[in-house]
Write a structure and sequence with these properties.
Layout (H helix, E strand, L loop, with lengths): L1 H7 L1 E14 L4 E4 L10 E12 H7 L6 E4 L13 H23 L6 E11 L4 H4 L7 E5 L2 E2 L3 H9 L6 E7 L1 E3 L5 E3 L3 E6 L25 E9 L4 E4 L10 H11 L11 E3 L2 E2 L5 E2 L4 H10 L4 E5 L3 H7 L5 E5 L2 H10 L13
Parallel strand pairs: 3-14, 14-17, 17-18
Antiparallel strand pairs: 1-3, 1-4, 2-13, 5-6, 5-12, 6-7, 6-8, 8-11, 9-10, 15-16
Length: about 350
């Protein structure tokens, strides 16, 4: 009976444990430009995130390579951990898009961007947005019959109106497939009533918005863009969420589109977020990811610079950890171990 009770008791704690290290190249399909069928291995790596019941919380303390976190550390204040999966899938979608843009731009293509509204990436529990049915992934494209092109535009629209005001949002509602792939429906109108900002509500950081907000929707937002890519790219990351594969996907895509070997034929693994613009950002679970890439036989592991010490502490002899802050630096590190300067296989206009 004690064991049954422990199994039913939710602790509010999560465990991060080593996941898998997977070669990206077999996951990538490119249509419209030439690709290189080489056998190079550039691996993404993930971790397992487990919501712990009482029994798991006890038994995992006797396991190695486990990091424990409270649920509150995984989501912004006021956001339910029930949104973690969809937030992760949205982050993976963003990581793929940034990888595609940066790969083509690195190889010389000009990739144009068109603002396409703002995407909800967090909804505060019991907020006006939650009551109106907005969810993570919804794409807001209009406010009171005016187009919305960026997140700051929506923030400015809401900033000065009085709480208790009924507003109309034009929203492309999101759908998530069973594998975590996002798609959007035709835009529909949603009416919601704004609220009064709670104490401690985050400052927007948007230009032209000063002083406290008068009204509040209860969402966090990110800009959405449509990019004019020169080819159609598909990266199959079924049921993997989060942004940390961004760097690995970017390197693998550059390698697929280029002459020669970007890696010098070494087995490479990488973790780190990728922004449009080429910055590499920090990620979670680096110690556990280091264990995973060692098990998969990687010779080199490229990580965000701020997490080099963590990775090296977890690494065994035979794995070299390289720290980077940009895609440019990662490419330079690969050249230093025998990789080539990337040159596109297809002519660039």
């Amino acid at each position: 009976m004690v064991f049954v009770g422990l199994s039913a008791w939710s602790t509010g704690q999560y465990a991060i444990t080593p996941g898998d290290a997977t070669s990206v190249t077999p996951l990538v399909s490119v249509r419209g430009v030439s690709t290189n069928p080489h056998p190079d291995t550039i691996m993404l790596t993930d971790v397992y995130l487990t919501a712990l019941n009482g029994w798991q919380w006890i038994t995992m303390h006797f396991s190695s390579h486990v990091q424990f976190l409270p649920g509150s550390a995984l989501v912004p204040p006021g956001v339910s951990t029930s949104e973690l999966n969809n937030q992760g899938y949205l982050e993976m979608r963003d990581a793929k898009l940034a990888a595609e843009v940066e790969a083509f731009r690195t190889l010389g293509w000009s990739v144009g961007a068109t603002p396409a509204g703002t995407i909800v990436n967090g909804v505060v529990t019991h907020s006006p947005a939650a009551k109106a049915g907005l969810v993570v992934g919804d794409n807001v494209v209009g406010f009171d019959h005016r187009p919305v092109r960026t997140s700051c535009q929506l923030v400015r629209d809401v900033h000065l109106i009085a709480p208790g005001t009924a507003v109309r949002l034009l929203v492309r509602r999101v759908s998530f497939s069973s594998a975590g792939v996002l798609s959007w429906r035709r835009a529909t109108e949603i009416t919601l009533t704004t609220g009064r900002p709670p104490n401690g509500a985050a400052v927007s950081g948007c230009a032209g918005v000063s002083g406290p907000d008068h009204s509040w929707l209860g969402v966090s937002l990110e800009d959405n863009f449509r990019y004019a890519l020169p080819a159609r790219v598909s990266i199959d990351t079924a049921s993997i969420g989060g942004p940390s594969a961004g760097l690995a996907m970017t390197l693998a895509l550059i390698n697929d589109l280029s002459h020669g070997s970007l890696t010098g034929h070494h087995i490479i693994a990488a973790t780190g977020t990728m922004s449009v613009g080429g910055a590499v950002g920090d990620v979670g679970g680096v110690a556990e990811k280091t264990v995973a890439v060692q098990r998969a036989g990687a010779r080199y592991f490229i990580v965000p610079q701020v997490e080099v010490a963590t990775a090296r502490t977890a690494a065994s002899p035979g794995l070299t950890v390289l720290g980077v802050t940009t895609l440019h630096q990662a490419l330079a590190d690969l050249r230093a171990i025998g990789g080539v300067v990337p040159r596109p296989l297809s002519p660039v206009p």
